[in-house]
């Protein structure tokens, strides 16, 4: 297990999925590093590793679930890989209800009482994944866990942890620790 996680942390560096410097984030906040999980989730080997690690972490925690869900866009790749890895059906949560057809905000089936493993690529404050959780709960689902590839440790853990079980695969401090111990070139 440890080696899979180490492998994933290494891939952040080898694939350029973490950059150090000066960045303005989507939230408008400034940061001295930028995490691009899509650099990993668009790489089949890294994506497979993420799905395997996530499936293992959840299993180790003794969590049972009926479906895997992810909010669009970044989480859909991860949720899809996890659905293939676990054989559980996939649910996609749209940012906004569709303006045509059924007008649904959920793609895939959600039945009342379904236990859902909700995944995300990166959490900062946890806002967007919590919105997705709300949409699923309105449909009658139960969120058994929220799992994320990287937690930036800027409040998401506390916010999500108040209501749900939270399983991050990697935290930013682990990435920084690896950078500092390995003397990774910036």
Give me the number of helical elements.
7
User: So what's the overall shape?
Assistant: globular
> Secondary-structure element order, as H and E?
HEEHHEHEEEHEHEH
Distance between the termini: 28 Å
CATH class: Alpha Beta
Give the mean pLDDT.
94
Oligomer: single chain
How would a crystallographer describe the biggest sheet? 6 strands, mixed
**What is the third-level CATH name, the topology?**
Rossmann fold
Strand line-up of the largest beta sheet: 5-4-3-6-7-8
Rg measurement, Å = 16 Å
Walkthrough of the structure:
This protein is of the alpha/beta class. Helices cover 41% and strands 26% of the residues. The chain has a single domain (2-182), classed as Rossmann fold (3-Layer(aba) Sandwich). The chain contains seven helices and eight strands. Strand 6 (115-123), helix 5 and strand 7 form a beta-alpha-beta unit. The longest helix is centred in the N-terminal third of the chain and has 17 residues, at 44-60. It is globular, with a radius of gyration of 16 Å. The two termini are 28 Å apart. The mean pLDDT is 94.
List the helices and strands and how they pair.
Blueprint: H1 2-14, E1 18-24, E2 30-35, H2 38-41, H3 44-60, E3 67-71, H4 74-86, E4 90-93, E5 106-107, E6 115-123, H5 127-138, E7 142-151, H6 156-161, E8 166-171, H7 172-182
Helix pairs in contact: 1-3, 1-7, 3-4
In short:
This protein has 186 residues and is an alpha/beta fold. Helix content is 41%, strand content 26%.
């Amino acid at each position: 297990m440890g080696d899979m996680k180490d492998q994933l942390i290494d891939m952040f560096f080898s694939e350029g999925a973490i950059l150090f410097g000066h960045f303005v984030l989507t939230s408008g906040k400034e940061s001295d590093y930028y995490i691009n999980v899509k650099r990993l989730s668009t790489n089949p080997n890294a994506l497979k590793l993420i799905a395997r690690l996530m499936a293992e972490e959840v299993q180790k925690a003794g969590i049972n679930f009926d479906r895997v869900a992810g909010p669009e866009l970044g989480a859909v790749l991860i949720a899809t890989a996890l659905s293939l890895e676990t054989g559980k059906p996939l649910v996609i949560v749209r940012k906004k209800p569709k303006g045509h057809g059924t007008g649904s905000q959920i793609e895939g089936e959600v039945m009342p009482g379904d236990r859902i493993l909700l995944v995300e690529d990166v959490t900062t404050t946890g806002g967007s994944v919590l919105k997705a959780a709300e949409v699923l709960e309105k449909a009658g689902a139960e969120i058994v866990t929220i799992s994320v590839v990287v937690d930036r440790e800027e409040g998401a853990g506390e916010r999500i942890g108040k209501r749900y079980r939270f399983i991050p695969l990697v935290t930013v401090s682990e990435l920084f620790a690896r950078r500092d111990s390995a003397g990774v070139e910036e």
